[in-house]
Amino acid sequence: MDALKIGLLGAGNVGAQVAKTLVEERELIAGRVGTGVKLIGVAVRDVEAPRDWKIPGELLTTDAEALVDEADLVIELLGGLEPAGELIARALNRGAAVVTGNKALLATRGGELHKLAEEQGALLHFEAAVAGAIPILRPIQESLSGDRITKVMGIVNGTTNYILDQMDTTGAAFEDALAEAQRLGYAEADPTADVEGHDAAAKAAILGTLAFHAPFSIDEVYCEGITGITGDDMEAAAASGYVIKLLAIIEKTEAGAILRVHPTLLPRTHPLASVRGAFNAVFVVAENAGELMFYGQGAGGQPTSSAIMGDVVSAARRLRSGTAEVPGLREQAADSAVPALPIKKAETQYYIDMVVADREGVIAEVARVLADHHVSIESMRQPGSVSAEGEVDVEGVDKKGAVVQIVTHLAREKDLDDTVATLKGLGVVKAVNSVLRVEVEQ
Amino acid sequence: MDALKIGLLGAGNVGAQVAKTLVEERELIAGRVGTGVKLIGVAVRDVEAPRDWKIPGELLTTDAEALVDEADLVIELLGGLEPAGELIARALNRGAAVVTGNKALLATRGGELHKLAEEQGALLHFEAAVAGAIPILRPIQESLSGDRITKVMGIVNGTTNYILDQMDTTGAAFEDALAEAQRLGYAEADPTADVEGHDAAAKAAILGTLAFHAPFSIDEVYCEGITGITGDDMEAAAASGYVIKLLAIIEKTEAGAILRVHPTLLPRTHPLASVRGAFNAVFVVAENAGELMFYGQGAGGQPTSSAIMGDVVSAARRLRSGTAEVPGLREQAADSAVPALPIKKAETQYYIDMVVADREGVIAEVARVLADHHVSIESMRQPGSVSAEGEVDVEGVDKKGAVVQIVTHLAREKDLDDTVATLKGLGVVKAVNSVLRVEVEQ
């Protein structure tokens, strides 16, 4: 058979690396696929722009549509919703295979694009969209296809993990850690998508879609970023044996799925707690497999290009053997539909940090409020220490009152909200500093 | 299309769980595959034997060959070389798909069976053969198919990891830790295959075959077990910040591949160092992807059945869509042949623990021997401590002499062997207690 014609859309950091691999490793790729592959063009906005790897001039074009119309396999690395979405739809409509790393697009229009791929019998691969080089989507779609996934928790945004790790290890303030991340190129000039959790939320939607065999969009993901995390939060968490991580959590309950992204206290002994710097890791719980963890580099041109090229080889093998196959979404007939539930339905543990009046009976009053809302206390701590007899000593008490830190047992988000609202209205509570969710080991 | 006919060979711990899933989760599996699946029979030696899950009597048969001849997909869970090998060959010759977890067979006759599968256009899946529930083979075959894997290091035997972890954390002797592992069911009555490293060596051959796209057999794996590891070794390693793990290591050098299994010192900060108890983990280094780690349960009926069922769904999807595809081995045309090299060609760091005469000039004499054999010293330690001025104090010295522990820089296995032989012949060296290999972070 003739060499497979590959069209590449976009030549940024990842795109240039992919072009380099397709040109320089052409024989290796052909060997792995079992047939020749040929990069027939690279669509860019500006032919003259400087690139990590100098793409041969004859490959560059500004006519993305013509390139899509000629290719057997289209690699989309433009990012953003348009024209990426339109070009992918155009390729799928022709029956061409598509490999993309576009998480924003998949989290917004994934359901529609999967459906189009199915109707056209076309391939749509997107391993690079979540956790860069870490193979996580294929294991979920294939290796765990005979099991039931109940929960996925991931550190899927390297920028925020770097920032939180810096705050934890060096005591840096959020702003300083962010500035350092920007200086090192881990964070963009406008860091909103990362620090507000939007990037992680897109990945949560994709993970949920594959793990629960039902299409979820980013609008169904509860999202809370890390801009509110202070050095005090970090320090208080550390003092109690926790570390704060931004997690994307997807979870199946009897009623449906809950997808959420928020800063989370993790015990230092949790496998995810030791994920440092800009690394990513995804923790998966399945009924039979038990607990699994996948760890590696979540971003960067080279790691991401590895995931893209894995998808390219995979898709090319299937094109060669004449089968389109998009497992995971198409094969869901027997899985009952899984609705997305609002965060109010979530059950998790909570950490509450507050300042109360320093007088007798206050703790009892606070505990009463929690009990009234069906929130039970796993541990209570006053900075300073509680003596063996249960007497609270006077460190941690200042003119403003005494700091009290509570970790609850599993509680419903709604009950917790009501609890916090009531606490805030209580005369003896001077301030609620922080309310954060906690994940303990399964 | 009619329901796919599945024949199961073997109904032990894993087999009974697989039968249970195929019967009880038939709708889920059918949904995931996109067509019906039907367990048509379970071949066993003794129909009356007690089992974890009571398989309906009408499914049980002692005629494995007849079952193989009727099935579209054969799940082989008999273990051992025969009749497993013969039955798998029989199924492949018919063009039936085969799913197996038989590492001993694959590590011995894998090349031949892969070839047969290719010739017949039949599927051969075996994710469960390495690291139980952890998806590691499919990521290597598919996700990393566009990258070059340079090294894989795995804790792939839960029994030995449990024993070493017990020795490390409780100070238990090897014999006591082994007895405890046997009591808990982690080790068999005859623990040879585990503690001598044979099980890990089989997995190393399989990992090497997939990672380097060339067939390796267990005979090409250097293999050293953990029976020689003493409490003293453990303690000395701990004192220097290391932990001892049994690793399966496969590595590509310019001249070829080196496959080896041996006890290895790892810095406590290495991602593999914190893998506890009977868990497994595999660390993969690829040119573009960088460092990846996969972690989870490596054995047990439920976890292993998850991997088997993932392969079953995957194979059934391909049968439904009419393609046989065995990526990884067939597609190796353009990868240059990779010969297996003997352990003598390995380059690694070494730890040497010895007793020397306690008099002036001895260390210089020892250092001279290493230098003469092109082995350079990364660190030297005398139990007791070296004072700030570099003076060695007298702890660690007894009537027999002084203990000296050396960690070398990267050295060739052959040079190290010669070094140790020379040291043993040296008048001032009273004993060489241990020689162990060391892996540091990349």
Automatic annotation (TrEMBL), chains A, B:
Chain positions recorded as NADP(+) binding sites: L9, G10, A11, G12, N13, V14, G15, A16
Residues that bind L-homoserine: E188
Pathway: Amino-acid biosynthesis; L-methionine biosynthesis via de novo pathway; L-homoserine from L-aspartate: step 3/3; Amino-acid biosynthesis; L-threonine biosynthesis; L-threonine from L-aspartate: step 3/5
Catalytic activity: L-homoserine + NAD(+) = L-aspartate 4-semialdehyde + NADH + H(+); L-homoserine + NADP(+) = L-aspartate 4-semialdehyde + NADPH + H(+)
Matches recorded under InterPro entries: ACT-like_dom_sf (IPR045865), ACT_dom (IPR002912), Asp/hSer_DH_NAD-bd (IPR005106), HDH (IPR016204), HDH_cat (IPR001342), HDH_CS (IPR019811), NAD(P)-bd_dom_sf (IPR036291)
EC number: 1.1.1.3
Keyword Oxidoreductase appears in the UniProt entry: yes
All copies of domain ACT, residue ranges: 351-437
Enzyme kind, highest EC tier: oxidoreductase
Organism domain of life: Bacteria
Active-site annotation: K203
Coiled coil: none
UniProt KW Transport keyword: no
Cofactors: a metal cation
Keywords noted in UniProt: Amino-acid biosynthesis, Methionine biosynthesis, NADP, Oxidoreductase, Sodium, Threonine biosynthesis
Biological-process GO terms, alphabetical: methionine biosynthetic process; threonine biosynthetic process
Molecular-function annotations in GO: homoserine dehydrogenase activity; NADP binding
Residues that, per the record, bind NADPH: K103
Similarity section: Belongs to the homoserine dehydrogenase family.
Biological role stated in the UniProt entry: Catalyzes the conversion of L-aspartate-beta-semialdehyde (L-Asa) to L-homoserine (L-Hse), the third step in the biosynthesis of threonine and methionine from aspartate.
Protein known as: Homoserine dehydrogenase
